[in-house]
Amino acid sequence: MTEIGIKRKKHEIRVAGKLFEFYLIPVIVEELLIKHDEAYGEIGEKIKASEDFDSMGTFVNERNKMCGGILFDALQALVEANGIEFDASWWKANIDYQGILEIISTMKVVEYADKMDKKKVSQ
Q1: Coil, helix or strand for 20?
Q2: What is the rounded distance in angstroms from the CA atom of residue 57 to the CA atom of residue 53?
Q3: C-alpha angle 72/65/43, rounded to 5°?
Q4: Domain boundaries in the chain?
Q5: What is the pLDDT of residues 74-116, one digit of tens each?
Q6: Which residues pair with residue 22 across a beta bridge?
Q7: 18 - beta bridge partners?
Q8: If we measure between CA atoms, which residue out of 23, 21, 28, 26 comes closest to residue 6?
């Protein structure tokens, strides 16, 4: 029998004094990031085209709500895929949207570095 993912390096990330071990970025997280970027760009165009402050504020609020929700869903998927119980209230109290992006970005860099190390070893 072959188990997928068990030999991956775990990476520790500390959030608000609590230590988490991540090793996997599931496909759903990648899909949610793409969805986030698309929504951010689309609503950003509406903000640029706004002719008054009120409509600009409405679009900014819409972007924050939509994109923030997508990022929070990505965080939940990442945490649960790594076998960690997801406590939404704890995360909402201890991280902002930039922090969510930092966790995912850090994991993507670690994943890329691990792949490069494996390529060097096999050559």
Answers
A1: strand
A2: 6
A3: 115
A4: 51-103
A5: 999 999 999 999 999 999 999 999 999 999 999 988 877 766 6
A6: 11
A7: 15
A8: 23
